[in-house]
Amino acid sequence: MFDGIKGVLIDLDGTILKGNQMIPYADEVIAYIRSLGKKIAFVSNRGNLSRRMCYERLEQFGIAATEKEIILSSTVTAQFLREHYPLCQVWTLGDEGLREELRHHQVQLAKIPEEADFLVITLHETMTYRDLDFAFRAVYHGARMIATNIDKMFPNENGNAIDVAGMVGAIEATTARKVELVLGKPSCFMVEAALRYLQVPPSQCLVIGDSTESDIRMGRMYGMKTVLVLTGNTKKSHLDTLRVKEHPDYVIDSIYDMIRLGEGECGERDVTGDCFTCRAVSLRK
Amino acid sequence: MFDGIKGVLIDLDGTILKGNQMIPYADEVIAYIRSLGKKIAFVSNRGNLSRRMCYERLEQFGIAATEKEIILSSTVTAQFLREHYPLCQVWTLGDEGLREELRHHQVQLAKIPEEADFLVITLHETMTYRDLDFAFRAVYHGARMIATNIDKMFPNENGNAIDVAGMVGAIEATTARKVELVLGKPSCFMVEAALRYLQVPPSQCLVIGDSTESDIRMGRMYGMKTVLVLTGNTKKSHLDTLRVKEHPDYVIDSIYDMIRLGEGECGERDVTGDCFTCRAVSLRK
């Protein structure tokens, strides 16, 4: 399973965390992967947290990580703006974590919406009408739109909650302008940030995630090995309807099964009727 | 005017061409700029032509150019896909020029829409319902969407004609998916392609174009000198309502006035009531 693998890209929400809880034994799996000498990058579409906040969130669950290992869509957005638009001024529609990350990367925040060159949109769980109106004003006065990601909904304690696509929709509908760049997975911007950190070629990487659209597609697009966990976005019942480009190499119930996979207790050739790991292998045929 | 300038980025449609005609004396202006020893890049949001087609179009008007000097949004899209998604398969909604450019850059074209990783959308003046339906099928089966540009309309012999945003709207409305990347001006992708060719820092560049949104914003975002011509998108009457981030350094009636500007017959300080050149200078105050 880990043969030839030097770098492991691990998703956060739905894969090792679920809301304010850790997926059972995720800390042990991270420690196990490290014990094999593999490099790890935590690659998440979270745009409303800064790396520092995310580091603290992982620490609180006893998951050992460094800030550099954490690649969030907020991180990648900030890096992108800093590198490609060094003179830009940015307004945000999103939680404080995004602004913290932009400031950390020396991206200039506009003083008033009217002066912004870009509106960066991410999840904004504390949003008010005023925030939305400020964002509207930025775009109405010419700001171009960037989104950290474009997820429609995410699971919380009430079922599904409106996500970034909702904020984007509000501004697009009222300004007749459109988002011109989405940074989150499965984009090349996230992959390249992870590979730059890992310093490992894609063919020696493994992706573990709960989303076929972002994690599995991202991995497959670069020839990485892919593992789908069923603790998040994707349910067993979805597996039959997956598009070919979203078929993972392995499907496991939970990240905990990585230890089983790693120890070769359930390998690629060990096909039985009710073994999802093996069923996944055949999906790729 | 040209003091300290080593590279000149020149827009095509509305600036040196208008439909199937050349803006009068544009060929002379290009020759004049070359005679000053400046490097030239032709930077156009045209995504439905290949470089080769564009080269022939310029040649037909006696405008001397090389293919390498021509930076189209089709060129930049093809380069982007080749560099960042080397394994991808692409379906297109657009005229043949786009496909020619993708093939030229060894981007793999999908055999059927269902297999595409990306749908690339550009202007498609020969579009039929069947083309639109193929594009829909690509996205319905999971292709991500990229647009060469996102212009809403362009002027032709009948007034304004529907542009790329219309094709994008048709697919977005029916698939609930969204374009995640727009390559055309004023994006960093176009600027960086031009600067890579010119090998000149932005502060030593001048942009000449007819669109405040794409040409002037692009130039200003990188600290380039900017010249707006009134032979295309922007009319005299628009000048009073320009956003600050779209104010050019100079406004001239036609690219032909570049010679006048270059020879210093009408300089930055030469303010008179009805001189648009000078009026523009004061816009930047």
From TrEMBL, chains A, B:
Active-site residues, Swiss-Prot/TrEMBL: D11, D13
GO annotation, cellular component aspect: cytoplasm
Keyword Magnesium belongs to the record: yes
EC number per UniProt: 3.1.3.-
InterPro entries assigned: HAD-like_sf (IPR036412), HAD-SF_hydro_IIA (IPR006357), HAD_sf (IPR023214)
Listed cofactors: Mg(2+)
Record: residues binding substrate: K185
Role according to the record: Catalyzes the dephosphorylation of 2-6 carbon acid sugars in vitro.
Name of the protein in its database record: Acid sugar phosphatase
Naturally occurring in which organism (per UniProt): Anoxybacteroides tepidamans
Lineage, top ranks: Bacteria, Bacillati, Bacillota, Bacilli, Bacillales
